[in-house]
Amino acid sequence: MSNNQLNRYENPSRSAYRSRTNIKQSPKQIVFPESPRTQQEAEGKASPSTTPSEDPQVAEASRELPRARVQGRSNSGFYRVNVKAAPAAKPEEENKFFGNCPRCEWKGYITFAAETQADVKLCACQADVCPQCGGEGGSIITLESGNRAWKTCDCRKLARRMELYRAAHIPSRFADKTLDAFAPNDDSQAKARAHFYKLYYDPTTGRSFKPGDTGVLLMGPPGVGKTHLMVGFLRNLILERGIACRFQDFGLLLSDMRDGYTRDIPEQHILQPLIDVDVLLLDDLGKGRNSKWELGIIDTLISCRYNAGRTTLITTNYTLDPETTLRERSRGRGNIDNEEFLSRDTLRDRVGDRIYSRLHEMCRFFFVRGEDYRQQVNKR
Ligand SMILES: [Zn+2]
Ligand SMILES: [Zn+2]
After folding, report:
1. Which ligand is located closest to the Cα atom of residue 134?
2. Residue 74's closest CA among 122, 138, 26?
3. Which ligand is nearest to the CA of 157?
């Protein structure tokens, strides 16, 4: 498709965003998935300027597609508006090619809390048939050698990333947690967030995060936003960069494994995906009874990932010295059982010397405090 045709396509599409965003609708009410035509029909607001049919080629492509395919989410129907600029984009500008849609803030997707875990759907602004591939998902191109090959269309990228997001098993309550939405109320929180931004994309060096880069370990009391920060970083890696990530609550891992023994599921079945994934977020490390068995699981997980050079992100309520652990715990919010509350263990106590020193090699450590820290100090 020539630039001229692209530009001609772009204009009606832009006005489509505007007209659609004027429709008062809460995100929950978005009719999805549906083609824009059917959506307008449903809303009784059909307007000729909101369809791309002015471009004969696009109109033709839409006509040719059977309805089932137009509505088939996993196969087709989404695209970047300004396709030509996408490959050269800097990370922070990466998402601006979806047009100016306030619903998804340029991103083309919307995450939401599903029943068991966070899920993601395409924004309504992406519901048109891709003008580049006509919904086919790609096209046959002729290589320099003269051979013909299948070239996957850009529009499929987002579909793959959405699959990765679902496979990451992020809990529902973190569906809307982004780095931008994190409001630091303490220097330590601001520092941790700044580190994530820099790790994601460092404007001074132009370097972006790559799987295998040094991870992050956030320690501190419950309720200070450690997991929020981590998940915010994770969703950027998945949905903006297409990096495979996995969220794993450490306490849940232990109970899954206990459950696995009773149902004869081999340990490896549960651990291997956690060892293999490019980026693993291990939430609440050190939770549990600190038994030999639990230490063994930590050892397997961390050692295997260390040997494979994979990035690991960790949050823990344990800190580097017993006094801090106890003090930080005692003012922590959320559910703390007595056993944990009274523990003076350090992180080193909870994971053992060997793993502790590995963690230091694999991660950059940050201590995150809560908002009430200064108030506590002043009262003393
Ligand atoms: Zn949108
Ligand atoms: Zn396409």
Report:
1. 2
2. 122
3. 2
Closest by CA position to 20, among listed 124, 129, 104, 110: 124
> Which ligand gives the minimal distance to the CA of 130?
2
Interval 134-165: pLDDT, tens: 778 888 889 999 999 988 887 788 889 999 99
Measure the CA–CA gap between 126 and 175, rounded to whole angstroms. Answer: 20
Helices (H), 277-321: 292-308
Q: Are 244 and 311 in contact (CB under 8 A)?
A: no
Q: Measured in angstroms, how far is the CA atom of residue 29 from the centroid of ligand 1?
A: 14
| Angstrom distances, CA of residue 101 to CA of 16, 22, 59, 109, 190 | 10, 11, 23, 10, 29
Residue 322, number of CB atoms within 10 A of its CB: 14
Ligand nearest to the CA of 105: 1
> Residue 184 is encoded by which pair of tokens?
């630091």
Tell me the CA–centroid distance for residue 3 and ligand 2, in Å: 16
CA 293 – ligand 2 centroid, Å: 50
pLDDT at 165: 97
pLDDT tens figures, 305-348? 999 999 999 999 888 876 666 665 555 444 445 445 456 678 88
Q: Model pTM greater than 0.70?
A: no
From the CA of 98, which ligand is nearest? 1
The domain spans of the chain are 3-156, 172-379
Task: Measure 74 CA to ligand 2 centroid, in angstroms.
Answer: 12
pLDDT given at position 127: 72
Report pLDDT for 272: 96
Say how many Å lie between the CA of residue 102 and the centre of ligand 1.
Answer: 6
C-alpha 32 – ligand 1 centre gap (Å) = 12
Distances (CA, A) of 282 to 75, 230, 246, 335, 372: 33, 10, 9, 19, 26
Q: Which CATH fold topology does 172-379 show?
A: Rossmann fold (3.40.50)
